[in-house]
Amino acid sequence: xxxxxxxxxxxxxxxxxxxxNGNGKVYYYFEDGVLDITVKYKKDLEQ
Length: 47
What we know:
By secondary structure, the chain is mainly β. The chain has strands spanning about 25-30, 35-40, 45. It has a three-stranded antiparallel beta sheet, with no helix packed on it.
């Protein structure tokens, strides 16, 4: 599944993941749009 857009609870756009073919980053946010954590993946494994 590919996420094409993501917004905070006020409708402001959030940065999307850069995950492709099991490699890249996924961004997790609080409801107010503040970045919580960034998780890096390499070959489908969390780094």
